[in-house]
Write a structure and sequence with these properties.
Dipeptide-binding Protein, domain 1; Dipeptide-binding Protein, domain 3; 7-stranded mixed β-sheet; 16 helices; globular
């Protein structure tokens, strides 16, 4: 942070007063508000219905599960669970919850709350996107898919208020990493049965911050004085700005009004180039063909369409072009997807599938977020297919804030996503394509693929990677997914000033750990002793204001997310 300019007469008065003031050896200026900017998007406060990466970042302030991410390594660290133990060849986990873990309103977080929330998450009627992450728990898949209606058949048991037992279907080395995901955080019982939270400004959660004010273009979070680890939460307030106006956001960053720009960076206007952090990320940008209905349920049709596309031109401007879904991982086998256009082979595949020259396919609708890059790729697809096939190709442009929700509908043929891994394992990219996954917007269904994923769930080490790679190759060969690039992360943040923020492969940065490095005051300027901050009061006597004291307004949104991707 830079020192703000002070009028001369005020500075003189300040210096005069400071002569009589006590001073420390190293004077510093402290900052109590951290300001971050994200791209314009709609935020769902309900972690059960969450889907977006921006929500995942915000939830690190509002919610906390049994374990949480280490900000540097992303390894699981104790959170609501102070410790845990395993039995039965690591298939039984017993978590011990800390008595000091409470919600914003002072109610204690109990093991029963976790059990009830997780059962709600996997209830078939809930339709939660991330419910398949729970399949590693005994009986969870059967309950999630409606094969059983007995919640007691699921391996989740509240032994007491402080002890939660979870039984797995088999040993799963990735289980604790998965538990870091926000979908495993508890929801307060008073809100658990409320599916639509849009009418509420907040809900009692248990994270290091609570939501004070909200509008479509801003959120204000305040430090939660009831949080069990409050002494290690230094920033008193977080202000979150939602905007796609990259030039204005960058200008505000240059003026020290924003501390971290996570989206919409206008790179040419950045004054401190050292604050531009470009790092690899466990993420892939891809297109997919919805394959739930004919003729696109035929792998031959999907493969034929994919082979007709000009892949080199599509991937032209990307720094990390990708033909595979999984980013490079040590010891993971190399696969190969569609690298080149092959018109002859594509036309042959369509003919063998019963659609010579595309006759009978009908129309193809490409749903894309409204932006320059989406328009460019959709244009290349349209030209490649209409110039060779008897088909009509339509471009359906959706404003970015509504784009993800639009992919849950069935009125389109082609969609695109940038998927960031939820944990550091290939399974986070592959499990979502199983037939029973709620994340499978493509409707991809292949019994052979499902069997490979199930087999990998019981394996370890190299053999597990080989099985997962076999599943990925099958997904690529049948054109279930059409990778474009492995996406790097680009952030604008000065880590010489902001501490506790570390680049990592998931590009997730828990707000709890973020704080400011002390900034030296100018020579000759001293200050009086700071007023001591009082200790947090007892539970139930502090917390967020009631809902009627909070702010919720509306404003317009702007497109532009995919325009910024190409700055890489």
């Amino acid at each position: 942070m830079k020192i703000q300019r002070v009028p001369a007469f005020l500075l003189s008065l300040f210096l005069f007063v400071s002569v009589f003031a006590w001073s420390e050896t190293e004077e510093t200026v402290e900052k109590s508000e951290f300001v971050v900017s994200f791209g314009n998007t709609e935020i769902n406060l309900n972690p059960i219905q969450s889907y977006k990466s921006t929500e995942a970042q915000i939830y690190t302030a509002l919610y906390e599960g049994l374990v949480s991410y280490n900000p540097y390594s992303l390894e699981p660290e104790p959170a609501v669970a102070t410790y845990w133990e395993t039995e039965d060849n690591n298939t039984l986990y017993r978590f011990y919850l800390r008595d000091s873990a409470v919600y914003w309103n002072g109610d204690r977080v109990t093991a029963q709350h976790f059990r009830d929330t997780w059962l709600k998450m996997i209830d078939p009627e809930t339709g939660a996107a991330y419910s398949s992450l729970f399949d590693v728990i005994s009986g969870a898949r059967e309950y999630r898919t409606g094969k059983t209606e007995d919640p007691d058949s699921v391996g989740i048991r509240a032994v007491s208020d402080s002890v939660l037992e979870v039984r797995l279907t088999h040993p799963a080395p990735h289980f604790l990493r998965v538990l870091c995901h926000h979908s495993f955080a508890p929801v307060h019982p008073s809100f658990l049965q409320k599916d639509d939270w849009s009418e509420f400004n907040t809900a009692p959660a248990n994270g290091p911050y609570y939501l004070l004010e909200e509008s479509e273009d801003e959120m204000i979070l305040k430090k939660n004085d009831l949080y069990w680890d409050r002494k290690n939460v230094e920033v008193q307030q977080i202000r979150i700005i939602f905007s796609d106006d990259s030039e204005e956001i960058t200008r505000q960053y240059n003026m020290d009004k924003i501390d971290w720009v996570a989206d919409s960076i206008h790179v040419p206007k950045v004054e401190n180039r050292d604050a531009l952090l470009l790092y690899p990320m466990f993420a892939t940008h891809y297109y997919y063909i919805r394959s739930a209905e004919p003729p696109f349920d035929d792998p031959g049709v999907r493969r034929g369409l994919a082979l007709l596309l000009p892949w080199q031109e599509i991937r032209r401007d990307y720094p990390l072009p990708a033909t595979t879904l999984i980013p490079a991982i040590p010891s993971y086998p190399e696969n190969e997807g569609f690298a080149m256009q092959d018109t002859e082979e594509g036309m042959k595949a369509l003919e063998e599938a019963g659609y010579p020259e595309g006759k009978g396919i009908g129309s193809i609708t490409i749903r894309i977020p409204d932006g320059t890059e989406g328009r460019r790729i959709a244009g290349l697809m349209k030209e490649a297919w209409e110039s060779r096939l008897e088909v009509e190709v339509k471009k359906d442009l959706i404003p970015f804030p509504r784009y993800y929700d639009s992919l849950k509908k069935t009125d389109y043929t082609i969609g695109s996503l940038t998927w960031i891994g939820d944990f550091l394992d290939p399974l986070t990219f592959l499990q979502m394509w199983t037939s029973e996954s709620n994340l499978n917007d493509a409707g991809y269904s292949n019994p052979e693929y499902d069997e490979l994923i199930d087999r990998a769930m019981t394996q370890y080490g190299v053999s597990r990677y080989q099985t997962l790679a076999e599943a990925e190759q099958l997904l690529l060969d049948t054109a279930g997914v059409l990778p474009v690039s492995h996406s790097p992360s680009l952030n604008l943040i000065d880590t010489d000033i902001v501490a506790g923020w570390f680049p990592n492969l998931l590009d997730i940065h828990p707000f709890k750990y973020i704080h400011f490095e002390p900034y030296p005051m100018p020579p000759g300027v001293v200050r009086g002793p700071a007023e001591k901050t009082p200790e947090p009061v007892q539970a139930r006597s502090s917390g967020p204001p009631p809902a009627d004291k909070r702010i919720k307004t509306s404003s317009s949104s702007k497109p532009g997310f995919f325009d910024q991707i190409m700055l890489f």
